[in-house]
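Issue 218. Parser rejects a valid record. Input:
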Amino acid sequence: MQRDGGRTPFRIELGPQHAVLMDALPDGVLVVDDRGLVVFANNRLEVLSGYSRHELFGAPVELLVPQRLQSRHVHDRQKFQQASRLRPMGDGINIYLRRKDGSELPVDIQLSPIEISETRGTVASIRDLTERKTIEAALRTSEERYRMLVDTAPVLISTLSQEGAFISLNREFERITGYKREDWIGKHFSQLVDPTYVPVGFERLRRLAEGSSVETREVGVRTASGDRRILESVAVPLVQEGQVVAALGVGRDVTEIRAVERALRESEVRFLSVFENAPLGIVLVDQDDLILEVNNAMCTLLGYTRAELLGSVIFRFVHPDEHDDARARRRSITDGEVGHLQAERRWQTQSGDVIVSTITASMIHDADGAPFCGLLIVQDITQRRAFEDELASLGVAARETLSSLTPREREALALLCKGFNAKEIADRLVVSVRTVESHIASSYRKLKVHGKDEAVARFNRLTGIVGEVESGR
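Output the parser choked on:
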């Protein structure tokens, strides 16, 4: 070591072997004299600080201290020199090394006193904590995320001791049960669940203590309000150093789901009852026009068995003359142009007969709103249509017969039907009795009857038919 008039700092010169050893150390090594001037720095410190040894030699050690901490560091350094001993620097606080570019590096520093030619100095061993700080921060973040995940999870998460007492409960426990979770820490699970589940719970705990997982099971729990909730629960053993120390349980509240499932089953039963026993034909058709389902009334209508109809193209049973119209209407339903439609449709039965029906068609959509299948409700109106056609034909004939009568003849017949005699009719029409008799005689010939009673019956029948046809329009 050399000194120049007491002003030039000592320079520590190392032999080749010692120099190689110091530069191979994973930590930075810094030596300062009693004035706080740098007298030695190894290769690792150059890497950590960004300064060369030449730049560091003779510089105050505060060069490596963040500016906001420099005045305090001077005080702490002087205090250490007065009662120096081997110790870590800055117990309980974060320490940073100020680099040449002004950035700060988290470090751990160990201080040790040293004698430099009868003068006190200090050796600082400096370790880069960047990676450790990163790992610690990642660990804290991971733990915080885990706690947040557990506490905000939409399922009940709990840990049980091997005896069955609650060790921890997440926030969902409070939402489901209405209890404060802190009130249940240390309490036994048997105080919460249905009594019928308790023996099963003890058996599951025994299996968990042996290191086995247990199957998913439903369990009823009582709430603070006295209600009963249903949880779908599964549990796994928690193992530390090869030993089972607790059990982790995850429970999903399925109370509403089970209620909906029960209601759905009941609805399906009602639907099937209506579907099978409905007096109208009901057909479900998929997107490819294949029959998915058909009820008894439709089978009877077409004369086929259910097995013969299922999987068949619906248009196979539609009258050929109506295929184009049926397909066009089907597209309008599928494309959403109309919500539902009503029309008449002719069908061909297995025996070759043609039946006439009204149909009401609509589209059933899936949960996403996409078209799923078509619904057809079919009502046989063959007999009604035949009656209407017959009535229409009779109406034409009745009109032709009635139109052959003159207005005066119709007036005379109308009064005759009301029970008036010839004289009374003549007085009302302001004509002679002879004229009335002439009108009535002419009406008999046109109606092809031979007397008053036949004429009245015939006239009433014809006017009644015309009235029925007109009222049905």
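Fixed in the parser; the record now loads. The chain has four domains: 16-130, 153-257, 278-380, 385-471.
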